[in-house]
Write a structure and sequence with these properties.
The complex is a heterodimer. Chain A is an all-alpha fold. Chain A has one domain (13-59). Chain A contains two helices and no strands. In chain A, helix 1 (11-30) runs antiparallel to helix 2 (34-59). The model of chain A has no long low-confidence stretch (mean pLDDT 91). Chain B is an all-alpha fold. Chain B has one domain (25-142). In chain B, helix 1 (25-39) packs antiparallel against helix 6 (115-142) and helix 3 runs antiparallel to helix 6 (115-142). Chain B starts with 24 loop residues before the first helix and ends in a 5-residue tail after the last helix. In chain B, 41% of the residues are buried. The chains are: A mainly alpha, B mainly alpha.
């Protein structure tokens, strides 16, 4: 198999990729109606971002 | 010795005979769907004509595996040196056949000396656990539970 070029993502891009993919998967697995799925995906994504960025800021003072 | 069938109970009723728990054909079918879902992400849902869920699981697991391996994440093998390696291997194998895909992509080995490689390791493990969750969901749906 030909070598795949390495993917170079920043911390935020990798975090965003994780949050989007998992939110969409959870939304589709956890809800049936399209409207419910969209609401679930948006809410889940918002919480992922809020907690991720919040924890990142909380750790900032200890990073140096 | 006294026959337990003739022993009267306090309220006068007799205990019902024991029902042997035998797996029904539906249970075997559900188990087959669960295993199919583990082997190929989304297949368990596709076999039940849940096309939206099948596509989302397939592409979500595939994207996470591709990104994780492309970021030089650690694809664990059976020859782990400690419990964390074993847990990582179990999580990675959760992706089913996509585990082989990850091994095929990552021909030059992992590089976790940078944050990207560490993120890649997490994305690979997430893909495996997500696929196991989806396989369990397909199994429960096949058993007729609300899904």
């Amino acid at each position: 198999m030909t070598a795949v070029p390495p993917l170079d993502l920043t911390h935020f891009q990798a975090f965003l990729l994780f949050a989007v993919v998992i939110s969409v998967a959870f939304g589709f697995l956890g809800r049936r109606r399209p409207k419910d799925r969209v609401k679930y995906i948006m809410w889940s994504l918002f919480l992922f971002l809020l907690v991720g960025i919040g924890v990142g800021w909380a750790m900032f003072p200890f990073s140096r | 010795m006294e026959d337990p069938e003739k022993i009267p109970t306090i309220d006068g009723t007799r205990p019902s005979p024991a029902i042997k728990a035998t797996p029904s054909p539906g249970d075997s079918r559900a188990l087959a769907f669960g295993i199919a879902a583990w082997l190929l992400p989304g297949l368990g849902h596709a076999l039940q004509k849940m096309w939206g869920r099948a596509l989302v699981v397939f592409f979500a697991v595939g994207l996470l595996v591709f990104a994780g391996a492309s970021m030089k994440g650690n694809v664990f093998t059976r020859q782990g040196s400690d419990a964390f390696d074993t847990l990582g291997y179990i999580a990675d194998v959760g992706t089913g056949t996509f585990y082989l895909f990850a091994r095929a992509i990552e021909t030059k080995g992992a590089d976790v000396s940078h944050a990207g490689g560490d993120y890649g390791t997490r994305l690979l493990a997430t893909a495996g656990v997500l696929n196991l969750l989806a396989a369990l969901h397909a199994y429960e749906a096949a058993r007729g539970h609300k899904a």
